[in-house]
Specification:
Length: about 500
Amino acid sequence: MQLPLAVNRHSTLNLQTQVFEQIRSMILAGQLRSGQRLPSSRHLCQQLQVSRITITLAFARLADEGYVETAKSLGTFVSREIPEQALHALRTGFEHTEQPIVSDQFRPDLLKLRSHNLVNARLKRSMIDFWVGRPDARSFPLRTWTRLTTKRLLSAGSALTEYRDPTGFIELRQAIADHLRPARGIIAEAEQIIITGGCQEGLNLVCRMLLSAGTDAIVESPGYAGASYLFESFGAHLHQIRVDEKGLDVAQLPDVTNALAYVTPSHQYPMGCTLPLDRRLELLAWAVKTNSYVVEDDYDSDFRYVGSPLAALKALDRANRVFYVGTFSKCLGAGLRIGYVVVPPAMLPAARHYKALMNNGQPWLEQAVLADFMNTGGYARHLRTIRQHYLGKRDALLRALNCNFGQGRAIGAEGGMHLAWRIPAHLPVAPVIVSKALEYGVGVYDLSPKAAVSPGRTTYAERHLMFGYSSLTEKQITTGVERLAASLRTQGASDMRPIKALSC
């Protein structure tokens, strides 16, 4: 470690005192922490181009005044206990130092920015957490991934030390194009695919191309907060369009031009419904009529349990008005930070330009390994396996909810990684249930602004909960719903089926 020290040979202070004062100040300011090892006197004299005796005398003075300790054969360390009089002097100095005034006039809009909550930090790991959109860590193909990673590293050459194409590793882009063609009905060239750091960066890329202050942006209500808050940050004018049991109510689309519409048609977030074919066609016709673009977020479309999935909205797009955003965060893991955008051909020059401005591309190794995983058939096998696992977990959740509550209604259980549950009329409103469940070690979620934008105190907001089931075991799911039922009995709720009914 090199310390940011400097000596001035023209100063009235001798070199020893300069070194002493600088190290002392770093200790008092917290830059050097208690127990931290200092560089050796040999390294410091080489760094500062001073004699070794200068550093030795500075260390001796620091030790005499209690700032450092020397352990024989181990080195010099910051003292465990800093002299109290020094700390008192430092605190006194801070108390009398004028704090800089931070002005909000330079960027007043910063005070209005919002961001959605991605990480659930409020629950202990020992609790049963129905957090939405989290894949099962136990399902990650670790052995295969390790083998492919090792193989790529052994043949990496200069790939790890050179900048790559900002739009992404071409082998991965081709593998994604080959996957989308049969799985989602999307016919796209590899060059149309831009690799991003997950879905959110993909949305950011689209916003850079299409949004400016005052641009009309259509979002679902309730809908994904991460998109709405991002559009707000670009100064867009939001139109919240109601979601019913079939998804976005396209009849309510506004009479605007040059707009951007964001939708989750395969498994609407958070309500889970699937947008039917007639509404998809109406949405595409609206985009053509108003010279607008549509962003299709297909975040968990790989999981369909009932019937065959509808072709993606992008597959129906004959006028090239749809940006298709996908991610590997739900089927593999968010830690990989790999997503992609299928860009309409006319927008490719702009997409390449803005992606290069955002960063110089995603990490090469993860892209290369994922490409190999897809090209060798491992990805398809992985999807088949976890689809069956998640189906079993979904069934366990439906059984548990039915046996404990009976009268509730599951929405969006045909696919995805979570379902919405309409709360029976005799139970409290969603925020009360969330609070009571926490007391029993269970995390369930309402449609709060942290996860889903929803206009005020609506039926959606107060009478629906979200249950993510993909990261839990079937036993945890059953136990979690049992605890939820027990927590509501203490609330005085009546007309609930007894927990023992689970034996059915």
